[in-house]
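To whoever is on call:

I kicked off a structure prediction for a single chain this morning and the downstream step that reads the tokens threw a length-mismatch warning. I double-checked the sequence; it's 440 residues and nothing unusual in it as far as I can see. Pasting both halves so you can look.
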Amino acid sequence: MISLPQLIHHFVAEQPDVQRVVLAVSGGVDSMVLLHSAVKAQLSQPLLVVHVNHQLSPFAADWQVRVSDCCTRLGVEFAAMAVQVEPRGAGLEEAARKARYAAIEHYLRPGDLVLMAHHQQDQLETFFLRLARGAGVRGLAGMESLRDWGPARLGRPFLTVDRASIERYAQIHALTWVEDESNANELFDRNFLRLHVIPMLQQRWAELPAHASQAMAQLRQSDTLLNEFASEDLQRCRPQPERLGVSLEMEPLRVWSQPRRYNLMRHWLASQGYRAPSRKRLAELDGLLTAKQDQNPLLAWGDCELRRYRKRIYCLPAGWSRARPAAQDCSTNNDVDLGGHHLKWTAASPGLPTGDYRVVVRTQAPEGLRAHPAGRAHSQSLKKLLQEYGLEPWLRDHLPLIFLGDRLMAVGDLWIEKSVAVEFGVVPRWSFSLPSSALV
């Protein structure tokens, strides 16, 4: 049977271009075994131990000292960060996890491989926690053994190792570790599972952790297939970047089955870095698809929002529309900050004369404003022109208008007014600075 140091050595060797191995060490038995095993693995990469002090226990400072002293004895670089855990409705366990991960991210750089000591029983607990919360295939597949994490990667080499093997390793090598008194608190869901539910189940089915690991591996394969199908479906919907966010054709979604439609939406949102919507949220999608042509439906899904316009579904970052900038004077020598969106001047022929202008958003413009785009015989109402130019309805109130005195000179980057252009001038480029991920 392969030893734990050999397991770590092989795990790291299988990952390309690892420049440094970062070990997340709390001081508990699992992470102390991870630390000792990584040292014994004689890796070619340098090691960095990161200890996160959650400041939740009166013994937290002692735990940090214990880990630091161990790293000194083993000759491993040590770093620690104290964090403030603020539940804010998420629950203490989840808040502590988020604070821990954010602290570790502070130390990461390209080429890092972060190792955590999650093992087979942790995986089993995760399965039951997610089952209780109604997770789907992806959630029930459990923790991944390897995934990207910012500029680095996160690995869990012990996921197939049972807890008894880890404890046996600690005893054989006479390791010392700390016991977190909160592990006995049954108010925490994970502790309740660990102390009561799983031991009872294992009395009946002794091989439950191993068998559950096999089931989760099959679920991960199913999730991989679903992602591959969703990637193909996404291309059928012709995704494209927009001025703000991204969009796709909605017609295929109207004819596909509900499971196929939901699978695509989960994949599309995940590819942009948004959280997976719940099934209740996904059910709202049907109303978006069946809304009348003249409606402007909106689905607010936490960190993003979905809208519909001209047979396309748009996904925008949440909170993009909060800014309401004041009218401002500007020079064509400088970009114009409009609070979340901006104008950038670029040389063009033909274009506006260089100089000073006044920029207002459409809601600040005179009522009933008419415009006369270059190349048109007659002026029309701004409202009518924006419909013809196909500007998304939710962006129209934010549209920047460029004036010289009382005279309208340009409407965003949609058009320059008739008879104002010069042969060598500038044109505005209107864009949003709020992050919207590229299509994957």
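Update from on-call: the warning came from a stale cache, not from the record. Cleared it. Sanity check on the structure: The longest strand covers residues 341-348.
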